[in-house]
Amino acid sequence: MEFSRRHFIGAALAAAAGVSTASCVTAPRKLAVPEPVPPAPVGPPPALAQAAAEPAVHAELPPLVAEALAALEVHGWRIPNRDRIGLVDFTLPSREPRFHLVDVATGQIERSWLVAHGSGSDPSATGMLHRFSNAPGSNASSRGAYLTANAYYGQHGRSQRLIGLDPTNDLALDRAIVIHGAAYVDRALIASQGRIGRSQGCFAFEPHEVAAVMDQLGEGRMIYAGKMENG
Predict the structure, then answer these.
(1) Quick one: CA torsion of 112, 117, 122, 128, rounded to 10 degrees?
(2) By C-alpha distance, which of 15, 2, 69, 5 is closest to 178?
(3) 231 within domain boundaries
(4) Cβ contacts of residue 216 below 8 Å, gap of 6+?
(5) CA nearest neighbour of 220 among 154, 166, 124, 148
(6) Mean pLDDT, range 206-222, rounded to an integer
(7) Residue 111 belongs to a domain
(8) Could you read off the pLDDT of 148-170 as tens digits, one per residue?
(9) Model-level pTM?
(10) Structural domains of the chain, count
(11) Is residue 220 part of a domain?
(12) Closest by alpha carbon to 137, among 88, 171, 164?
């Protein structure tokens, strides 16, 4: 069964309440006390489990889009809103818009934004993501599917928590990996240094664009971060 909206938000808040915020954010100004959360289901209902075991084939789509839509098939029972997804193509350099809003019905990219990767993924500041990591303190970006959780206000202003759904990113809440705006994501930097700045693993956007990203995704949608192996 799918989580109710109350269950979904409560679960995100309850999980976030006991974790460190050392990576990208400080504690929000105000957070409501979460309601008690019933135990989460240990797996999808049988019908959904069978569908997840046989993900749809998207042969005519770009490989990373097809990979993301296959991940949506696998995690769909945990994702209430499946009309569109966020896709981060870390194959591309940071100077290019690589956070895409994808229409699930068609597989088409509707809009794209600049987004930073973690400094631990690019220690030499080349503008390219070289490695993923899920380790606390790594300051790296993580590969995998995320569920968008609740919005809040922190040190970077309006931000949004993310729940990692894969073993490669399941510490996202512990690491405070979130969506937020940052001054180092600036097109002017591309002209001067050929790249934007780096985050501590968060999905950081231009400050004037982060509201549009959050409004388009809302709560209960999937973001998929990946990279083509030859990229």
Answers:
(1) 0
(2) 15
(3) no
(4) 84, 101, 111
(5) 148
(6) 97
(7) yes
(8) 999 999 999 999 999 999 999 99
(9) 0.78
(10) 1
(11) yes
(12) 171
Q: Domain limits at 177? A: 5-226
User: Distance between CA atoms of 158 and 109, rounded to whole angstroms?
Assistant: 25
At which residue do the structure tokens 């489990």 appear? 49
Do the Cβ atoms of 16 and 173 come closer than 8 Å? yes
Cα 10–chain centre separation: 19
Residue 196, classed as helix, strand or coil, is coil
Determine, yes or no, domain membership for 32: yes
Torsion of CA 167, 88, 217, 2, to 10 degrees: -30
Element containing residue 75 per DSSP (H, E): helix 63-75
159-208 pLDDT, tens digit per residue, is: 999 999 999 999 999 999 999 999 999 999 999 999 999 999 999 999 99
Is the pLDDT assigned to residue 45 strictly greater than 90? no
Written as six digits, the tokens of 115 are 């987004």
Please report, for residues 146, 153, 174, 193, 194, the alpha-carbon distance to residue 85 in angstroms, rounded to integers and kept in the order given: 10, 23, 23, 31, 28
CATH number at residue 187: 2.40.440.10
